[in-house]
Design a protein that fits this description.
Strand order of the largest sheet: 1-2
Distance between the termini: 35 Å
Number of helices: 12
Order of helices and strands: HHHHHHHHHEEHHH
Strand content: under 5%
Largest sheet: 2 strands, antiparallel
Bound molecules: zinc ion
Radius of gyration: 20 Å
């Protein structure tokens, strides 16, 4: 399936519901397929870290933030408006640059038109389901007013706790190898945490109170990623609390939090990637999560740890998988 086919040319089944589909079945991290295929694992790690990728860019941002825009441990010992405001502004700027930049590129300037776009529909205007009757304004408001605030609050908590000895600090000289490995393990931990809290958010009472706000977005844009209810932000970013037990350096905290906040924007672009000279040079949104927004009861996690595969909620993007998904949904609706 590729983007050159017009929607009319295709059947009206599962595939007919999408403007563009990547190659399916969707591939997940080979680290969780037995027996291990070391070539595949090496390729996965290489592809997600050693090119211009979301991850390598965020690692770069984390180091820059730590080097130029981070209060010293000394300062962080006492809570003061000065350094907290600095962190808040830093995060506000980062979110606006990433989500705003992607929004301008894909939806305002339409640089790539509809190429690699999963869903051909536009983001919604004059829609009462959204705050301010606008999907983009709604998404911006919740991302910036609530998302950046909760993100900042967790960073402040961690830096203050580290500076006062309530959370353990890891320095490069303690163990250079572990210092590096921790970067690689962070997305794995986040994937584990995200799957479970996300399933919990789909528990009907919590869904109604909190997660329904994120699911106003049946179709998504970059600002949709961090558009959540404040309670969901508190739950979503709580993955960082692991570092009250596992020692980390402030730069690990920055990487972890920026990974949470910024990949929420990149993973909801609605496009598979960014084309440079007709080549997909930067993988962005996943069809996996795009399907979660369209069909709800599938693909709660991400591709880093295939929890959905382990627990039967995986939709791999094939028609067969879709038939199984519909069957499961019927069964659940009957309560059997
Ligand atoms: Zn959900
Ligand atoms: Zn989402």
């Amino acid at each position: 399936m590729n983007s050159t086919q017009s929607p009319q040319a295709r059947d009206t089944g599962f595939e007919g519901q999408w403007h563009y589909m990547p190659d399916v079945p969707i591939r997940v991290s080979p680290l969780f397929s037995w027996p291990w295929n070391f070539r595949e694992i090496a390729r996965w790690v290489w592809n997600s870290w050693f090119f211009v990728t979301e991850r390598s860019i965020i690692a770069g941002i984390a180091f820059a933030a730590w080097w130029w825009f981070q209060p010293s441990m000394e300062e962080a010992r006492t809570l003061a408006i000065g350094w907290i405001a600095e962190i808040y502004i830093r995060n506000l700027v980062l979110m606006t640059l990433v989500a705003g930049g992607l929004h301008l590129f894909f939806y305002r300037w339409r640089v790539q038109q509809d190429r690699l776009k999963y869903d051909s529909r536009e983001l919604r205007e004059n829609a009462r389901a959204f705050s301010f009757n606008s999907q983009v304004l709604d998404n911006m408001f919740w991302s910036l007013a609530s998302g950046v605030t909760v993100w900042t609050a967790y960073e402040v908590l961690m830096f203050w706790a580290m500076a006062n000895g309530y959370a353990p600090v890891l320095y490069w000289q303690d163990s250079p190898a572990w210092f590096i490995v921790l970067f690689f393990l962070t997305p794995v931990w986040i994937s584990f945490h995200f799957y479970w809290v996300h399933r919990w958010l789909h528990w009907p009472p919590l869904y109604r109170i909190a997660h329904a706000l994120h699911h106003r977005n049946m179709n998504v844009g970059p600002w949709s990623g961090l558009s959540m209810h404040p309670l969901e932000h508190v739950i979503f970013f709580s993955s960082i609390l692991l570092h009250f037990i596992i020692p980390a350096h402030p730069v690990h905290i920055l990487f972890h939090m920026q990974h949470q906040a910024l990949t929420a924007a990149t993973s909801h672009t609605g496009f598979e990637g960014l084309l440079v000279k007709d080549k997909n040079r930067l993988a962005l949104g996943t069809f996996h999560h795009q399907m979660h927004h369209r069909y709800f009861e599938c693909n709660y996690g991400n591709l880093e740890v295939p929890w959905d595969k382990f627990f039967g909620s995986f939709h791999d993007g094939t028609s067969e998988s879709h038939a199984k998904f519909k069957e499961r949904r019927k069964r659940l609706a009957r309560g059997s």
